[in-house]
Description:
The structure holds 2 protein chains of 2 kinds. Chain A is an alpha/beta fold. Chain A has helices spanning about 1-15, 40-65, 75-85, 100-105, 110-120, 140-155, 175-185, 205-210, 215-220, 235-250, 280-285, 290-300, 305-330, 335-340, 350-360; strands at about 15-20, 90-95, 160-165, 190-195, 200, 205, 225-230, 255-260. In chain A, helix 6 packs parallel to helix 7 (about 175-185). The model of chain A has no long low-confidence stretch (mean pLDDT about 95). Chain B folds into 2 domains: about 1-185, Thiamin diphosphate (ThDP)-binding fold, Pyr/PP domains (Rossmann fold); about 195-325, Rossmann fold (3-Layer(aba) Sandwich), CATH 3.40.50.920. In chain B, helix 3 (about 60-70) runs parallel beside helix 4 (about 90-100). Thiamine diphosphate (TPP) sits at the interface of chains A and B. Chain B: This is Alpha-ketoacid dehydrogenase subunit beta. Chain B: It holds the Pfam family Transketolase_C. Chain B: One of its GO terms (molecular function) is oxidoreductase activity.
Amino acid sequence: MTILKHVLESVENQFETFQILNEDGKIVNKADMPELSDEELKELMRRMVYTRVLDQRSIALNRQGRLGFYAPTAGQEASQLGSHFALEKEDYLLPGYRDVPQLIWQGLPLHQAFLWSRGHFAGGQFPEDVRALFPQIIIGAQYVQAAGVALGIKKRGKQAVAVTWTGDGGTSQGDFYEGMNFAGAYKAPAIFIAQNNGFAISVPREKQSSAKTLAQKAIAAGIEGIQVDGMDVLAVYAATKHARNRAINGEGPTLIETLTYRYGPHTMSGDDPTRYRSDELNSEWEKKDPLIRFRKFLEGKKLWSEEEEAKVIEDAKNDIKEAIKKADQAPKQKVTDLIGFMYEELPVNLQAQMEEYQAKESK
Amino acid sequence: MAQMTMIQAITDAMRNELKNDENVLVFGEDVGQNGGVFRATEGLQKEFGEDRVFDTPLAESGIGGLAIGLALEGYRPVPEIQFFGFLFEVMDSVAGQMNRIRFRTGGTKNQPITVRAPFGGGVHTPEMHADSLEGLIAQTPGIKVVIPSTPYEAKGLLISSIRDNDPVVFLEHMKLYRSFREEVPEEEYTIELGKAAVKREGKDVTVVAYGAMVHSSLKAAEELEKEGIDVEVIDLRTVSPVDYETVMESVKKTGRAVVVQEAQRQAGIAANIVAEIQERAILHLEAPVLRVTAADTIYPFSEAEDVWLPNHQDIVEKIKAVVNF
Lengths: 363, 325
Ligand SMILES: Cc1ncc(C[n+]2csc(CCOP(=O)(O)OP(=O)(O)O)c2C)c(N)n1
Ligand SMILES: [Mg+2]
């Protein structure tokens, strides 16, 4: 049965890494270069620089005890923001815990992102025009839910897509397969993004699966899959744009695997990456940095300058300062607030507890 | 003897059993080289090799199924679920499969699995990490639920759990992992599952608790001693099955009881204990049996957890209420 062996081999060999900009910021794939105006190209850079500053400040704020749960994003800007840049306001986002930047660029006010990090309910009260779910903590859950949102969008005949992100570890969950399979079965307009940063906390990608690529996991669901250089913002953008067009045209979902890296620890809650990653590996990836690469590209087109970059950094720092101030003003949470969110109408047990805690908390 | 934290005692128990029985296997997310996110398996892969101590792909349902299958093949699996909030991902394995295999096979097959998981509030985790879900499993026939409150007991109870021929869910309160050290013998010892411990003797009122609430109860008892109230504190240690003998003996002596749990009030361990007390000892009671619990909400966002969690002050209040009834 030599044929069996060859099927796997031939499938795997078809998943080449899609790239547009190489590490030197040179275009290596002119044919797929997306149509973006100079202004849009600059906006992409602005967002990446801003988000890098946000990451640095968030880490510092966490260390000072002024932020709570935080999963660092540096290194993943192209993967996160390139994919988000291909979306529209009417699209629905289902992010994971590391994907706060996409929410912010979708319109989630910064102070609310901070409140979410601190564990304040106001961090989950998104503005009505931000079509998104809070960052998912349960790995994989967002994938199946995305299939539901996508089917809903399709049934309503809307010109929109549901987009969800998880990590390389997330692709091992049953929910990952179920989500893609359901969306595929309904030809629902969904985009599944697997950000492969090489590790699930400490577990290397090779230990998650014998599959050579994560993108090939699309095959079993009967949907399109593509592996992208996740440090190349133009490639991520182009792949996501393509997936969105296909989805809107009724051609069904796409799985996009982005090859990327997180420079920082898994989260700020005690992870020590030196236990499982080498300095050599870190510097190998830092050479592929998405900001350096895209900056070179823009500078070559005379679209970016040090002054412009300094201005973005300054703006980001100011915004963050303001947002922290605003987050500090949020009212202290009470048990009575929490009870109030439980049901549309309070059942008897909670009515009694509401009174009990009202008395306690007004003391 | 060595001074150990609870997490060290847990590691020590696994090391002991890995040595003791070549069928013991330890696995889960990040348990290998990383030694677990809390370092519960620190050094074990190095000592026993990847064959015995290994990382799994990221899927709790996969971990549960793997444990069941390995048990069918004669192994004694000790899987870790990284946080007990992910119980829902592995619920079918735990409550729909491993607990029923002895029953389904008419007593011909067993499942000597010990599912370890950190749980419990007060350490500012993101959501789904801190929930007290022991009640869900305690309601499930065919599985035992063990919750230690000290390093010494953690070691003895974990060794007993691993040696038990039925599935055990072994829950480790995160707040207790490193909160204090105590003398833990380096040699092996066991503590019988299903046996409570009287942690403080008293004659006026019985407090029944488990996990971190044992320490809050002891603190309440100390405070009340100054006011002349003599509190007996019982640590259940195993919440399924419950050692009702020890509870009843105490309640018959004191005539008063308060049951404490960190979990929400609706259903749960405490409700069942109150029910058993009234069935078995109502004529000995001088006052209604009261509960100290959290409110019936979802486990709160981290900024609100300190106000939400029951504390020793809540226990003091309820003890006073039953004493002054
Ligand atoms: C269902 C579930 N299992 C386990 C965890 C604990 N956990 C949080 S992040 C993580 C690793 C995730 O890795 P990956 O999917 O690669 O995403 P990354 O963090 O690298 O972005 C684990 C095991 C969780 N949050 N949810
Ligand atoms: Mg990862």
